[in-house]
Specification:
Number of domains: 2
Radius of gyration: 21 Å
Order of helices and strands: EHHHEEEEEEEHEHEHEHHEHEHE
Structural class: alpha/beta
Largest sheet: 10 strands, mixed
CATH superfamily of the largest domain: Aldolase class I
Bound molecules: S-adenosyl-L-homocysteine
CATH class of the largest domain: Alpha Beta
Number of strands: 14
Strand order of the largest sheet: 3-4-5-6-9-10-11-12-13-14
CATH architecture of the largest domain: Alpha-Beta Barrel
Strand content: 15-25%
Shape: elongated
């Protein structure tokens, strides 16, 4: 028989409260259920022990709780943990725990596959199957938090939306998930520790700014020259750099938050002085910093990362122009857990 019950975790806190009020039950029960679902992370109604049996039965008659399962857990030599996460409809996404000396970062997926076509990213080879629900993203965070507690004896310090998918193409659910991560009755984490990474969709960047979000923004730039960028990120033909820049200025005006530009340097693509100068010019127009990322080769691509002296050129030129720059070493390459390598192998 096909299950037609609604997943209770699709409801907002208000909707949960309204459900109880509609059944002439105290709104307080709604708040309690919210805490069971989001603070304590229970997976069945019988675990909600401070609810009367009749209330639990009422919930069971109306709802179900879908939850993710970690199907395979792989550990890298450098401590990175990659999870193959099975969803209730058997589709699989990946999530990663990235430990450093002082941090435990969760890298989570927002979509099954991706509709964008970045030629350097393994996820682009899978077509976009569907968006993840807020709870499916949230569960990835909770499970990685548990792994961090087990392997590193500390809770998560940071969350990055840099797994599979384009978070801004699943905006509503990503936002609903972040609400629960930051809600004191959820995980109570500061939005300052959350970064949403986008390939750069101007309309959605404006919307986020207008919505007054409090988390950090990273943009996968990879080139500040439109003709170059659209070769490596073909969808960017629809979102030219000048529009992207305008939306980022709007973001800064509304949020007063610096933007991080993610940037990989490839041989023969963006390795000339002209590329560096274009990046400097772009960065000087909006408060920002640059995160140079080590390229993680993917099977079917001929792209090659530049020798380090080119990275050095980038770092020197940016620094001379007082633009903050960091170089991010790859993590978890041996288990294909690194950026751009997530493709359900
Ligand atoms: N769609 C979002 C989030 C997923 S990609 C975005 O584009 O930002 C997360 C980060 O990994 C992005 O900065 C992306 O450019 C980078 N990335 C993708 N493929 C990569 C690869 N093969 N090596 C290194 N970084 C990669």
């Amino acid at each position: 028989m096909k299950n037609t019950k609604k997943d209770i975790r699709v409801l907002t806190k208000d909707e949960l409260i309204k459900f109880f009020v509609k059944h002439n039950i105290s709104p307080f029960r709604g708040k309690q259920v919210y805490q069971w679902l989001w603070q304590k992370g229970v997976h069945d109604f019988d675990s909600m022990t401070n609810l009367a049996l009749v209330h639990r039965e009422l919930l069971k008659a109306n709802f179900e709780i879908n939850h993710i399962k970690i199907d395979v857990e792989q550990k890298s030599e450098d401590g990175t943990v990659k999870n193959a996460v099975k969803l209730h409809d058997q589709l699989v996404v990946e999530s990663v725990l990235i430990p450093t000396e002082s941090r435990s970062t969760a890298c989570v997926s927002s979509q099954v596959g991706c509709s964008l076509d970045c030629i350097f990213c393994a996820t682009a080879s899978m077509k976009r199957m569907r968006n993840l629900n807020a709870d499916e993203i949230y569960d990835q965070v909770v499970s990685i938090n548990q792994q961090s507690l087990i392997y590193h004896q500390r809770p998560l310090t940071n969350i990055v939306f840099m797994g599979m998918g384009e978070p801004l193409m699943n905006y509503k659910n990503v936002l609903a998930c972040i609400d629960k991560i930051t809600d004191p009755e959820g995980l109570g984490m500061s939005p300052k520790r959350i970064t949403v990474s986008t390939s750069g969709i101007p309309k959605m960047i404006r919307k986020m700014a207008d919505d007054g979000v409090k988390f950090c923004l990273a943009v996968s730039l990879h080139s500040a020259i439109q003709d170059v960028r659209k070769q490596i990120m073909p969808f960017a033909t629809k979102f030219p750099l000048d529009e992207l820049l305008k939306s980022l200025k709007h973001w800064y005006a509304c949020t007063k938050k610096h933007i991080t530009f993610e940037y990989i340097v490839w041989e023969g693509i963006n390795d000339t002085k002209k590329d560096i100068q274009a990046l400097v010019k772009f960065c000087l127009q909006v408060p920002s910093k640059v995160n140079l990322i080590q390229y993680n080769p993917i099977d079917y691509s001929k792209l090659k990362e530049v020798p380090f002296h080119v990275i050095d050129d980038y770092i020197k030129t940016l620094t001379d122009s007082r633009i903050q720059v960091t170089y991010r070493r790859s993590r978890g390459q041996d288990i294909d857990a690194a950026c751009g390598q997530l493709a359900n192998k």
